[in-house]
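Hi P.,

Sorry for the delay on this. The queue was packed all week, but I finally got your sequence through. Input first:
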Amino acid sequence: MFDYHHFPVIAVMILFLGAFLVEIFGAKNKAVRNTIAIVVAGISTVCIYALIKPVFFDGEVISYWMGNWAPVSGYAIGIGYEVDALNLFFALLTVTTFFLSGIYSIRYMEKDEHLGHYYTLFLMLSGGVLGLVLTGDVFNMFVMIEIMTFAAVALTAFRNRSFGALEGAFKYLALGSIGSSMTLAGIAVLYMSCHTLNMAQLSSILGSQPLNPTTVFAFALMFAGLAVKAFIVPFHTPAADAYMVAPTSVSMMFSGMVNKAGVYGMIRLCYTIFHAMDQSSLQILLVAFGCVTMFVGVTMALAQHDFKRLLAFHSISQIGYVITAIGLSTAVGLSAGLFHAMNHTLFKGLLFLTAGAVLKATGTTNLDKLGGLSKKMPLTTICFLVGAFSISGLPPFNGFASKWMVYQAAYAKAVTTGNFFYAVVTIVAVVVSVMTLASFIKVTQACFFGQCPDSLKDTKEVPFSMRLPMWILSVACLASGVFYNFVYEKVLYPAMVATLNTVKYIDSMMGAGYSAAAGVQNHLVDAPRLSVWDPISWLLLFVICLVAICLVVVLGDKTRGRLSDAEGEPQDGKYATFFGGEHALHSHVGGSDLFWGFKKDFKGYFNVVQGAHDGNVNTYASWVVIATAVIAIFMVIFVK
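Then the structure:
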């Protein structure tokens, strides 16, 4: 019988071995290629799922030293893998994503060329992300970030004859490299200060003394570098192009596990290594980034005409929820952030797969050219509706449960701290959820209902192997919403406690009593068992919703007055009022039509956002550099 302590390393190495074998034996043989890819992905998945009992149920933290290079005289000299409930949580999201994506890829990618290279990159990306979330060494984390980034860039450009593929890959390469460089620079500064690369030992050193300007500067660099990987605004610019032009099976991986790797890194950085989440300044910084990310992402999604590009901006927006909740630095907030990260993997993976099914069946994801697919693709339509209901936060689907926890956590933070900022956060979170629902009403109408164009009369459902992952994710979206208490007790609670229990993380890797000898204590011990539902909060949320609606109406009226037709804007007959007697004509409600009035009312805002996103890589790179400088200055001044 295998010792499960070897499973984390086996799960990572089998993926890299599979990539090597696919390139050698599978380049010209379809059956060999597909078999190797799915088998190694399955083995990796089984290895990770086998750790659920010892880690989640028994509370064990698995430590594994590569080459048996254990600490010598209390000093870490080797590369270690350390698996607690937090990184196992993200590892489960990772393996679930790439295994289902692999099944989906078999038929989705069957007409593409050079599929040997595709599956090699596919497995390299999977191994890079999984290695990142399981490692206990910051330099090994950087190595995995590099593998992940370059595999993602190559997969973005895989369909290089498609419009925008090379441009999207170049943007990802340029900005991803900047993010990786900042991470490496931060690691170098940290090593210079602490003389170790092991996360547990770094945690013991930094947790036993106040942070100095050098370590804070390293913190800021690593924070910004990981923010690039998580696609947080203003580090988000490569995401939309990459998600749109990459094969949909890869877009699912970007959304389901690549950006989660960045989120995991930020959690581990802020909570475990630097012990900084008990400082209100860092809490405000994270929550502010989260709020801006969720709002900018959803408003940009509303303006899109392409199914996949719309989903890309929603991925950015939903990560904003996760960062906001994590930044609250409470047990409820952390649980909400982890829950929404899980749910985002499920419902956004489902939505990308449905978009891929539409692309496979029709040859386009342009919402203005689609319509009536519910009659041609009823099973895909049902799966899409499950995903749309989930991401929009409608009960009883999982998005409602996690968003409700975010609302609760933000409101509770406002009450306990007396800080009005967190009350505003609650309102923003509710407004963004409403706007998310609005954008998916647009997709539903433009793509699946209405009249089917003549060019799509012969559209049929996609093959079974493409539908199977969609069905699995649909069931998961419903089950995790209905049985939310089970999910909380068995998955979220252990992951949340592991995040807060820094002492156990240190001692499991470095030896019993190591943290006590260093004088490290757990700063955050608030870890209550709670129910997602709080009946008293229903009335409070209702009031918040009314305030949010009133703000939208008032702002809309003011904007409408400034942007009236009297200013000389051209009239569009398609939106004219008909009183009778006019010539009857059919007018399809496309992706650019349903919320035309909303975009017109807030034209000033959309013009600013559109003007800022000029497509110039130099502009986006300057955003990253300026934002990093601002973060560094803020942290040096306020984080102690």
